[in-house]
Specification:
Elements: H1 3-13, H2 16-22, H3 29-48
Helix pairs in contact: 1-3
């Protein structure tokens, strides 16, 4: 997953402030899972559209 996509999703989910101030290592496991889940949803939508 690209850093750009991770950043966009983190902003959408409201965890980007943590990323900005403390780095990706400080994002909770739950929120990381939510980021991955959202990225999968986006990938599936893009795949279905082709």
């Amino acid at each position: 997953m690209s850093d750009k996509l991770k950043t966009e999703i983190a902003k959408e989910l409201g965890v980007y402030n943590t990323v900005e101030t403390e780095g990706w290592g400080s994002v909770s496991s739950r929120n990381c899972g939510n980021i991955v889940r959202k990225a999968i949803e986006i990938a599936e939508r893009n795949f279905e559209g082709k």
